## 1
Amino acid sequence: MIEIKRCCLNNGLRVIVHEDSSTPLAAVSLVYMVGSRNEDPELTGLAHLFEHLMFRGSESVPDFDDQLQLAGGENNAFTNSDITNYYLTIPAVNIETAFWLESDRMKGLNITEESLSNQKMVVLEEYRQAYLNQPYGDATLLIRPLAYKIHPYRWPTIGKEEHIKKVTLGDIKEFFHSYYAPNNCIMVVAGNVSADDVFRLAEKWFGKIKMRKVHTETLPEEPPQKSARKLTVKRNVPANALYKAWHVCCRRDPSFITLDLLTDILAAGESGRLQRILVREKKLFSSINAYLTGDLDPGLLIIQGRLNNGVSYEKAENELNKIIEEIKSTPVPDEEMEKVKNRFEAEHIMDRVNILGKVLSLSQYEVLGDASLINSEIELYRNVTAGMVSEAAGNYLKKTSCNTLYYISTAAKQL
Amino acid sequence: MKTQKSDRPPVNPINIEFISQPEKIILSNKVPVYFIKGGNEEITKIDFVFRAGFTAEEIPLQSSTTARMLTEGSEHMTASEINHELDYYGITFNAASDRDSTIISAIFLNRHFTKALELLKEIIFSPRFPEDEFKTLMNRRLQWFLINREKVSTIATEYFFESVFGKSHPYGLRLNAEDFSRIKPAHLRNFHSRYYIPQEMTLFVSGKTPTGVIEHLENYVGSIVHYPADRKKSPPLPYGEKKRNLFIPKEGAVQSAIRIGSQTIKRSNPDFSSLLIVNTLLGGYFGSRLMKNLREEKGYTYGISSYLVSLDLAGYLLIATEVGKKYTQKAVKEIFKEIKILQKEPVKDKELEMVKNYMLSDLVRMFDGPFATAESFRLVWESGMDMSYFQTLAQKIKSITPDEIIHIARSYYDTGELYTVIAGPEK
């Protein structure tokens, strides 16, 4: 049981605390409810580029990282479609430094043209390193626009090179004022701290920041997909790869947990059905995986695998489809249900073994609505039945709502 | 705009006095067990460490394949039974080897403690190495190898170690696709019978371990009998290749991978702590010289890091980055420039204070939770040392002066001796 205390400042900032005296550290996480979903389609990548600039000078602190490191802190951040999460660990004795720095950059940024152009270069190198210079690295960039035609999930968080290049200081200022408000932020603190101290420090450092009107846009709903879509690309990679993406529910929908167990039945560990049948028994794939994107709006269930040399796409897909159809028609045996639930429980607990893992988990649950969901999640998974799994597979894994990417190797022999 | 100093909360000293020696017991078959107790969750991790890695191999891939094949079939269980049981009990199992050791780790909920031990004993000590599963595994590993070989980062790293440790030394071994078909199950049986034995084994048990843990370990592990085995003689010390600059072309790459470094002292050398501080200043944290110059000022790269690693037979220094292809030569120049500045100009007070506080708190982070603590302990244990190493390091961090930093940078970063390996597109 993870004890949670919370308060909400007058400006709307939510503060959540978990006291843990077993560590000399404290971990702090700030989630701003803004991601690439909030971007202008002609200016994609802005949310992520903005995250980089959050380290390049605020109202009264020109050097965030240096000041944090002086107090022994270490930090990082990530941006996805829905949120931007800044997090740090610091010796608990220096926790106030984290409040000073985080509140200062919530008050306002002080970004120069030079910083902006420098971080554009850094982000473009990140783009090259993570997506362009990796075998299969651009596959996720191809799947999104195939699966989404209207919703902003159709573009990747990293954005387009030409969009990143044209971001101006004006765009940065506008983005800050639209989204970086206390009432659009969740702060979670865990570690060797007392909740009273944290609430006092929160009031001291963040209390004077004014509530702001947060830009709210109604995102267009992705219309139901009526027919299967397919894309074929050729790349200089060693083996053919297959990607399939189906539209599923949003992360907050109760069916999400059922779908999560479904992907575990398919692909968790070496005993998952896809590994057991397609990799080991039939030797069609050298690796295969299934996962959910887990977005706040309806996301995707993705199955991706690399084919063994000499295996045709037709054969690989047929055998994959058989496994999916079987889950729809035949109840998953009790022992297999128990297995994926046990696995979930163990992993859920492992996530909280260190203080940073704990603070990030709590943040994620608060984004979903309530940090204390962390304590009821295992029970929700325990309540899923085999019938619910078959039903979810039937509802979501339809041939007509599937997006398939053939990622063909120019090196492998084609059949 | 200036920093409003009055606003800044005071920085309090960071102490690491909480670091203590782990409890040690010896099982009846003389296997040492270290306990690192702690944490709030009912969860335990066990590491079985065998001091046999690449240097103990007769043929490439022998140690890693032996480890990876443990879950592919045992005396009483098939591969699918083993994998089902591991997943059924929610056991995270990992088996891998590196240059000096094989490490088999399992993390599990305490309520499955005895089941996990029973299963681990079966998997680790009675493997069968069946032919069919072996073939499937080797095909999968070959596919991973072929994919990784497309990455400039992998290419540069492999050629770097080959250059620094020598083509003929296991530390410098660069794998070929043919290596994956040369190895046979008989090699694995041989490696297993030689090294998976009580006299080669040490256990690290961490977490909120349940009561009765010692009795259980005695039952399942203490009962494994000794039998004589001839350990392969350790290889000689590694010697680097003569050629210090290497370029490996990779057609179509949009970035170059740069690896710069050399062999250096091991952890047991009294200068190691000081060298670790110099390495951190240069490229060991986000505020480092290299990160500030190549990323935050010039925008050549998403990131650059330098590492100092101690192995059984040697240590090494490594600076690693991927940069946009048009910045390749400029980046190499800037890296050497930063090394030379460290050798000439005294570090300013503010930077020294920053690196000191960062490193002290990084020590604290190395003990964040029982699993991290166990890993930190294992690191120094492999060098034949104990937790007092961290106290010595902390003392050195607090006391090091700008002059000492210059001295260490001059002694251990001989720019004429450094290897520079680049993988990327042709100019």
## 2
Amino acid sequence: MIWLGFDIVGKAVFSCILIGVLTGLMGVFVVRMRLSAIGYSMSHGAFAGAALGVATSINPLVSAMLFASFVALIIGPVADKAKLHPDTITSILFPLNMALAFIFLTLTPEIGLTSQVANVLWGSIISITNNDLVYMTTICAFTLSVIYLVWKELFAIMYNRKLAEADGINTRIFIYFIILLSGIVTTLSLKLVGGLLVYALLFNPASTALQFLEDMRKVIIVSPIIGVTTNLLGLVASLYLDIPVGSSIVLVSTIVFALSVLVSPKRRRRMME
Amino acid sequence: MVCIPKMLTIYRFKEAEEMINGKEIIRLENVSTVYEGENRAALRDISLSIKENELVYIIGPNASGKTTLLETINGLLNPFKGSIFVSGLNIKKHGRYLRTEIGYVPQDFMVEPGEPYLAHDVVVMGRYGKMGVLNKPSKRDREKAHNTMKMLEIDELSNRPMGKLSGGQQQKVMIARALAKEPRILLMDEPFSNLDPESKRKIPELITEIHEKNNLTTIIVTHETHRMIKSCTRALVLDNGRIIADEIPEKSLQTLETYS
């Protein structure tokens, strides 16, 4: 494999690019479909999954992804059954995931939070392996292809779900799919910034792009570019300032968002009005 | 892969049409619904038959069930009792396909000021269901959307974001979206409420023209009874979820006045 010779920085740069594309892309759907709770519920679902993986001697990243995917899969159907917004169900599952994580951790008291489980919560860029990069590349290619293929349907659902349904689109299946994909992308991002900071990766690039653009087709292209740029700037800043990578990326990403709010042409137009 | 189920549905669709001699296009049999999350009835035991090419008004006081009736006809709401047939097919089973043939103008269409969608894209969306999954909008789809916008005199709004349009302009975009679909049935919920006086005169005339030219079965929910389209042949009066009158428009209006 081409990246066998990669050093830590090389892997970090590569993962910053892949995660920037993925979270920047999925963030647009999460913001537009108002799935704000998905970030923290998925990351804590992944945390519970990682704890279960350690307790049962399974690769924590694999168990984290499986657990988060399971949580993501049940959100949509439960929300439809309960006639509640998926965000409400996500918020209910969040403490449940934490409770399960603590129970799983008690199964391996000798390892506890000092283990690789903690990497899921805090992030650890140096622990990114070649296998992780393979997962990220695969999911990135899959996500880009599928979104290209069903963009028309997602475009209409993001505008107005009820109207999309009235036009004959099966909105339910696409929303479940976006929730599932968001769960997988969140889990993949955990090693970069950790579960406590991953929301910034999902929300900031999309929200920044929406400050400037009035055409959703441009937003979906610019948001991943912002994601990649802020991730790389954050990585560079962390190397120069000797601060944790995750925190550095979140700081840069938040500063970029704050600046975009200040210089947004939308804001200027509103002030003129 | 995508085409086979669609072909089967079209076959069933044609077969069903023959069964009902191609005349009755909508039939409701003892339909009752409740408001979501409540036990209160929204529609009570409604039976109704609408023929092809009819233009029907639905009038009645607030919360009488007018919007619920429209959304039940196009299968967006499921009744807890009774059946709905559109072109002879049960909407519960074939709703997704049938909705590609039904144009719908909703009552609540206003978007937030920052909405990042261009008006032309929103009109093209009306054709998405017809295109089928995985297919991209063709040149013809875009042209159809453009021509419909031109017909409604909103083609200059094509590249403007929806959030920047006035309520009346947004309503015209919604009408264009429904018409661009080239539907067989058009359901409109208070479609003229936000229009300026000139458009309130012009758009109903246009709907009349399209209705007559395309044999379009049209159902319009409205409060503005003084603006009824001339070619309207029938008006239903709804109150408390029941049809209390189903007559020619003039008589229905009298019933509505007497009742209220």
## 3
Amino acid sequence: MTSTLETKIAERVSRIEATPAIPAVFLPLLEMLNAPPDQVKLDKVVQLVSYDNTIAAQCLRVASSPLFGMTKSPESIKGAVISLGLRRVETILLTCCLSQAFPARNWIIDPAVFWRHSLGCAMVCRKFAEKLKGADGDEAYMAGLLHDIGFLVNCLSFPEEFSKAMELAHQSGIPFDEAEREAMGFTHEDTGAALARQWNLGGRLVDVIAHHHAPERSKSAPPLVALVHLCDLLCRARGLGYGYYENRRVDLANNPAWEILLQEHRELEGVDLVRFTFELDEAVGEIGELVATIFGASAAAKA
Amino acid sequence: MTTASQSAVAPAKAEATRATIDPIFRQIRDLVYKTSGIYQQEEKLYLLVDSSGRRIKKLSLRSTREYWELLSAQGTREHEMRQLLNEVTIGETCLFRSLPQLDALRKVILPEIVQEKTKQITKQLRIWSAGCSTGEESYTLAMNMMEESERLLKGWTIEVLATDLNDRSVETAKAGIYGDYALRYTTDYYKAKYFTSLDEKKMQVRPEVKNLITFSRLNLQEDSKMLFMKGMDLIFCCNVLIYFDAPSKSRVINHFFSNLNFGGYFFLGTSESLIKLNDKFHLVHFPGAIGYWKLSLKSGKL
């Protein structure tokens, strides 16, 4: 990317900050997410969740979804936070906040499609991380949830160019980042990374957002970026994609990302990819429901 | 043609079953997967409950626990697993069973094969439906290829080989007569173009479709016969290998691998897995479909 292009993106992204839609909880939450887990206080999280009625209600609903491993609905916010654990609540909170930060107005991509992909990828990243020794499932969840944040930047800051990319992708069935590169000259990785830096997200998350289509470029978190790359491909192959047919064959085990992840996690060799795919399919229905829970019935209807 | 998103399941049913299903059925599910490669998804677990229920009733057992013991005890497990698999896969055969597989075939694989064979003088496509049962899959493939013969496959010779162990199945397949249930996913477009109505309930495949297919009896475990099935571009083998033990399965798959052309593909049933029985094939994903790829010579590495 040229430096003038980089400046243009940064300039447009800086205007996003002025968007009033970002809930008051969002930025403190992001700050908290960057802090080491042992420094995060229970009361502070409960306070953040309770701050906004809508978010609190959403959190309770999401917390009772089977995808988060709860068998019965928590009755109070504190109860939810205690039984789910702090990191888990942070991820739920982040999910709810994101939906408010980017309300579905003037979207070029169908919001239901986008959220199904992002949430689906978050879930799949966590499930995959759980199969790997020492991988942080909650970090993987956040990485999956945020990896395509540049889509939202594109909708807000580059609507015309982004529409063209969307049209090209739908018509030709090529991967979305290729369509963006062809139609816009840059991708959601570039714009997402600009926003992530502005939000002061941690270096590992910035790397995921900036390089999830080319994990070999990652400097600070190659295994995490590789994990997101593979889960992203898998989601797109199993009905959690961008809402169009991608005309291609995906060979996960011969993808460079697989090699990167394998270097860190030898146990990857033992993962039964077909069974993992079937298990992913099982979650597709629930992800649709979760999108409905968080983003309302209209999003669900479209999904 | 539809996209993969149609395979998404109805969430309401999943919700209802999750809480009420005896955990032992998940144990049975895992055992079925381990022995056959068939995976019963959470949303379809009730089918496994029904199948087991029919076996329990037939065997006059008192509990699911007793059934589990029968399924896992040495001496009874092989026979009972076979019976259960018969129940599980009942009604699986119909025309247009897996749309994502057909999408992958027409949108991704055919353009690739056409490209691959662009310099060959005889343009020929050979497809093998191995374990064709009563012909549903074979006719589905033939009709889809006929659709493409106006476009991608213009001027190509299309050949579908359909084999099954069972003589009676082969005879039924040759007749090509199907009722409502087998035709439940067949659109009016295909019915009008490729079928004639016999009576109110039955339709027969037209001769021009039949002409593309050679039906014959074949035992996949007969090594000498398997050696003659060379030069395939695509092999479909749906819910057949589930009945084989691991060594036989592995041998048959090796045959499939050598019978395929470079760049060719092997497909199993939609909820079926090879469970790592072969490391020569590349496991590949298409939207909504999983296939096994014999690396193309052009891709440079073998």
## 4
Amino acid sequence: MTAMPASALSDAASIVAVGMHVVSPADERISSLELQLHACRDAMRGAGIDRTDVGAVFTGRAPMSYTAMEWNMRIVNELKIVPKLSSEITVHGAGVLATWQYAAMAVANGLVDYALCCSGCMGRRWVDLVKVNAGVEADLQFEMPYGPTTPSLYALWGQRYMHEFGVRPEDTARIAVENRKWALHHPDAAMRDKGEITVADVLASRPIASPLRLLDCSSWYKGGGVGSAVVITSTGRARAFDRPVSISGFGQCTTHEWVTDRLGLWGIEPSIKPNLVTTGAKVAAADAYAMAAIGPEDVDLVETSAPFTFLNMMVLEDLGFCEKGEGKHFVGGGGIDFDGGLPFNTNGGYLSFGQAANGMQMATEAVQQLRGEAPGRQLADPHRALVHFHGGPNAAHSVLLLSNEGGSR
Amino acid sequence: MTARIDWSEGLPFKIGPYEVGLTETAPETAGYWAGVERGELMIKRCAGCGRHLHPRRIFCPGCTSNDLAWVRSSGRGTVYTFSTVYRAPTEEFEAPYTNGIVELEEGVFLYGRLVDGDGAEIAIGDPVEVDFEAVRAEGEVLPVYRVR
């Protein structure tokens, strides 16, 4: 018997409920475990299932502020569920989106009826992430002794990318400007009340790690956190639910653990020749498009976890919205403009919604847009969304294509 | 009664028993750190295919040989990329400073501190040569790369 083609998974699983728990700085401090449990409970209530119905649970890695091995076990332990399939998906931030992919495989193949996926972190409220974050992203032996920060590790990609393709800081700044416009319309965005910014504002903000300035960088989630959870079931079963969103295609690609080691990779995409300009998003997206039998021209909105301006540009290229090196022209020509461009990071993105540390808020944003549940920023009749997550300094990438018409295909 | 953990300032971040930031050695990298003590930059070379490898490698991913030997790098290379850090992670490091990745003549890429010989700005493609010095007060001596 030959293997089932990946296309058999297209639109075979659907999201039927979203739980999202937002903690603002004014709110009481809670643990990251509590944050995620609120989201899980809301998602399960939303789907109308109880704890005896949850056949699988997949979590992102343990929150920075609540380090525990086997985080999925903590969730199982609190929910008093008895999943048949359960794991923490540990490909850095890409794992948060990958949880949906494992859930899709489980429900599409009839192994379980309902899968629960969750993530979220109250990181900024509990730990000094400027001090510690590089500790999970740098080589402790060969990089960490030199005092890297997380932005400075990503900046190694940015510096090289901007050098190779003649990208200027004003070219990438436009991404911060356009992301901010979306955030002004989202009730929970970190920068909701901060007003619009200009390219000049970005260029005048203080340097963090060249070529990155403050407004080139994601904002931490204003001293709070976002917990998110979804319930995923087979598309057949999902037809009984209100406005399910199907998973039309997905892909993953992991290339390295530390940025120096990415340059020690050769002879395989996206690193046929060692480089710091093409990410695993290219491979993940190609697989996702192939599974869904669509292309970037079919996508109505894009959400990405890229936490720096230049990386948004690189990722737009890798996801196929323009050729490699053409991002500056695509963005410069209004390609992602709030007014009339491709809807991109419609909650403000990491730059202006904020980095809710390991949150899946970019993915739930896409689901909410496709369900018509995005008041203030709702797109007119979108049908297809692309979601991209990554983690480590570009170590791992996940891409998901979502549709609100998959149930009828 | 046990003492209550004070979460008010957060807790120190550790990975397993290791404090982040230590230059912990492992058997497969001991030769690198021994070289640093002698003032020599050591990398690995595969006896099977001749490819030079990062000091971390345990076997050759190219030809799968286990036969890796320590060899001394010329210590010369070029700046492949870099970033000047303006916001240091801790008080131990005094910003601004520049870290980057150097492409050695042997084709191996190494991360390290870039030290500018004559005060001019560092750029991609600049030729560099290894030197050995501490990058923080009372810190360990590490390979750094001086612009030639």
